[in-house]
Amino acid sequence: MISNDITQFKDMEICVDIGRIRFFIMLDSNFFNEKHILSFLRHKHGVFEIFFIKNGKGKMTIRNQEHDLKKNHIYFVNKGSFHKQLSTNTIEGYSFQLRYEVFETTEHRTQSGESEQFLEKIKGMDDFILEDKYDNCSIIEKIHQEMADQSFGFYTKIQTYFTQIIINILRLCYPKNGNKKVLAKKNVDQSRTKIIDNFIYDNFNTNCYSYDLANLLGVSERQLNRILKEEYNTGFKQKMLEMRMEVAMDYLLHTDFNIDQISEMVGYNEPSNFNAIFKKKIGVSPGPYRKCHVEKDGSKLNERSM
Questions:
Q1: End-of-domain residue from the set 173, 204, 238
Q2: 25 bridge partner residues
Q3: pLDDT tens digits, residue range 107-158?
């Protein structure tokens, strides 16, 4: 049972230095709540997000791939990777976000070039899923206890535990023998598709045009159309529409926003236009879509994007 006394550390950043790398560990509610607060809306972060599953079962979508959430596993989501959890999840565990900065001076170098090895490995991190052989959930619970007790040197002890967790993750990702489980990507064109995905996500509810994306990629609109056809089997307008409908469905199922609000949030000034397009694309109007799924699930979830 987690003490309420440690909630004072919510939204705090813990700094940990390893060689010439300074890690910033960002703590939110999901670091303190064993019953994980789910984020059903598709989203991304500008930092790493790490999930430690202690118990239960569920599913997580990472970069449009659905994965089972398994007991005693770590799910490492790279910065910029879209992800969401499903509303049927019944998981227990913890998560935190992580970013880092590098000191350019030589003062922070550790012996035997270990600092450079850390830097090389952290730069190579990507989305992955691995069995947690080091039981990092128990280390997180020790951090909770230090926060609750606040005995002499507790902050240094917390830093030590986070250093241990970071090292554990890197050891799991880069074992002496065996292969890390990196989620499959489209090798050569991965950076290009990531730019496209980010552009669509950031601009789906605005009045942007295909030439804006073409300029960002440094290609002509004709080349962009070919790329979209090859990578997504669709065109620019259709890709934007698909994102609008995906986000609209998430809002309808997992928030209390009314339909007029959702219409505006996904880029439609006139709710009547939104209703007509939603019905044409999904096969039913937004109101009945929400009602049908609420009745099917028993109750509507009231979750905001994290």
A1: 173
A2: 14, 98
A3: 544 455 677 788 888 888 888 999 999 999 999 999 999 999 999 999 999 9
